[in-house]
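In this section we walk through a basic example: taking a raw amino acid sequence and producing a predicted 3D structure, encoded as discrete structure tokens. The instruction is simple. Fold the sequence below.
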Amino acid sequence: MSKINNEKFGIALNSSETPILKKMGVPESNIDFMTQSRGILNRMSVNDTLCVSSVQSFSNGAYDLFNKIQYLMNRGVEFQSGKEKTLSFTSIKPLSTNTVEILKNFAIREQEFANWVQTSRLETNAKAQLINKIQYEKIIDICVMFSSNGLKKK
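The resulting token sequence is shown next.
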């Protein structure tokens, strides 16, 4: 079955990522910034491709990334990351069960840390800062793992 009307869309964190998305084949008219990402996702259909320069610019944490990837997979939207190529998937070659489980475990661990912080005796501002740091560290861990052949592509 051939793909019909498949388009590439891109989500950038800032304007410095736009050239990367263009190199990935995304037309400028299909590039939006993270603040407008809902509009792009609503325009996409089965077999379209969402391109990002890195999962770090696409997500603010492991839990957020896991949910976004699940959403894309369930809608039949393909995904390409410029840096973390082993997290890219298509309808023909979806993410392996092992990769999904790894992402899920990152998300669960991040959520457990965040829940622990919420129940701590820290001040509200300190809790928010610590949760942001935990999310940042988890997404960095994912980037490092998938950028440095943590999982080998078959």
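Looking at the output, two observations stand out. Confidence is low (pLDDT under 50) at residues 149-154. The longest helix spans residues 124-147. In the next section we compare this with other chains.
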